Amino acid sequence: MMHHPDLFITISEGRDRGVFSSAEIEIDDIIEISPVIVLSSEDKEKIHNTHLHDYYFLWGTKLDQIALALGYGSLYNHSNTPNATYIYEYATRTITFKCIQKIEAGDEIFIDYNEGNEKAVKLWF
Question: What is the CATH topology of the domain spanning 2-111?
Answer without folding.
Answer: Beta-clip-like (2.170.270)
